[in-house]
Amino acid sequence: MSVLNKKSVEDLNVSGKKVLVRCDFNVKMEGSKITSDKRIVASLPTIKYLIDNKAKVILCSHLGRPKGGVDPEFSMVPVAKRLSELLGQEVYMAKDVVGESANSLAASLKDGEVLLVENVRFEIGETKNDAELSKKFAALAELFVNDAFGSAHRAHSSTAGVADYLPSAMGYLIKKEIEFMGAALENPKRPLVAILGGAKVSDKIGVIENLLDKCDTLIIGGGMAYTFFAAKGYGYGTSICETDKIETAEAMMEKAKEKGVNFLIPADTKLGKEYAPNTESMTVNSNEIPDGWMGLDIGPKAQQMFSDAIKGAGTIIWNGPMGVSEWENFAAGTIAVAKAVAESGAISIVGGGDSAAAIKKLGFEDKMSHISTGGGASLEFLEGKELPGIAAINDKE
Ligand code: AMP
């Protein structure tokens, strides 16, 4: 089933209807103060669309990890306040999630009005995808819109279960994720170049496996490269190497050969004496790493080789830095790749989490076609897994 065929909010007739929207309002907080309202801002297009189209808007989200039910520390009240400022209209705040307060406020909403219910994780059935709770969510509204991509890989009541009981569609945030990532996997503009970095092969085995079936070139950098070095019989000094994954790495390179995928590992490596930002460093060919040194970035030859491969790409999927990019001395590889991606003219998709943070820090945010908002969710998407929060959304007729 193609994710490209899911209904979007624009496919629903929302006028005069009560619409429950699962948002990602999991904002950064210090005490009761919101330190970044980015996620609230990101959800505005869907909310504004619903207001403009005269829906009665009922919002829900999780915030943090409250343990065992109601915990005032994780109340959505500060979110309602900020959202109200951003929308320039009142956002009614329920005292509960699916209880009396939420129900009576939902029932009295007028067209274009907005209600936020309490933290969905105050209900212990939420993370268990409890059917009774899903029914209670559904009873609040007539339609369901999921716009929380970052939680779409979790089968919870408010992300997936509720869609069993209401007609459903995706909001603009999920739509954008699917348009870019779904198209890149199902129908990419070729050549499709995947760049995978970050700390561990074990985190990304599923992604490598899936992308080997789809991409034309696969570039490996970052800490995960050393397991591939070991598979090739190179020394790797004190670099992070997952010795229990060497055979897997070997099998992946074999599979790449069979499939005709251009599989690139760094030709040279910048080494450090210790795992420290200002440690003594030197650059060597990757098959000449001496004992007692660890690889902390790709070298200039690898930068050139990777940049050349990136230059001709039609679509690029990038997940994970090329080295310890948090440290200036070992950031050059990641910067070079970011530059090459930015200048490529290709459709460029950056996975969430650390690589997205690196891109933002380096100031290349605006040069990428799409930066995924969900770390775990985007990895699972790239692994080719079905995300429950997306699978649950109705297909277009
Ligand atoms: P990930 O979350 O898998 O994308 O990994 C990101 C992390 O990988 C970053 O914190 C980097 O510091 C780390 N990393 C990248 N290259 C290396 C390396 N050569 N050695 C150790 N850690 C690395």
Number of helices: 14
- Give a list of the ligands: adenosine monophosphate
Give the overall shape, derived from the CA principal axes.
elongated
Helix content: 25-40%
How much β-strand is present in the residues?
15-25%
Structural class: alpha/beta
Tally of extended strands?
17
Q: What is the highest CATH level, the class of the largest domain?
A: Alpha Beta
Give a description of the structure.
- The structure is a single chain.
- This protein has 397 residues and is an alpha/beta fold.
- The chain folds into two domains: 3-175, 3-Layer(aba) Sandwich (Rossmann fold), CATH 3.40.50.1260; 188-382, Phosphoglycerate kinase, N-terminal domain (Rossmann fold, 3-Layer(aba) Sandwich), CATH 3.40.50.1260.
- The protein has helices at 38-42, 44-52, 77-87, 100-107, 131-139, 172-186, 201-212, 225-231, 246-259, 300-311, 332-343, 354-362, 375-382, 388-391; strands spanning 18-22, 28-30, 33-36, 56-60, 91-93, 114-116, 143-146, 168-170, 192-196, 217-220, 262-264, 268-272, 281-285, 294-298, 315-319, 347-350, 370-371.
- The strands form four sheets. The chain has a six-stranded parallel sheet with strand order 5-6-4-1-7-8, sandwiched between helices.
- Strand 15 (315-319), helix 11 (332-343) and strand 16 form a beta-alpha-beta unit.
- Helix 8 (225-231) crosses helix 9 (246-259) and helix 10 packs parallel to helix 11.
- The longest helix is centred in the middle third of the chain and has 15 residues, at 172-186.
- It is elongated, with a radius of gyration of 23 Å.
- It starts with 17 loop residues before the first strand and ends in a 6-residue tail after the last helix.
- 51% of the residues are buried.
- Adenosine monophosphate binds next to strand 14 and helix 12.
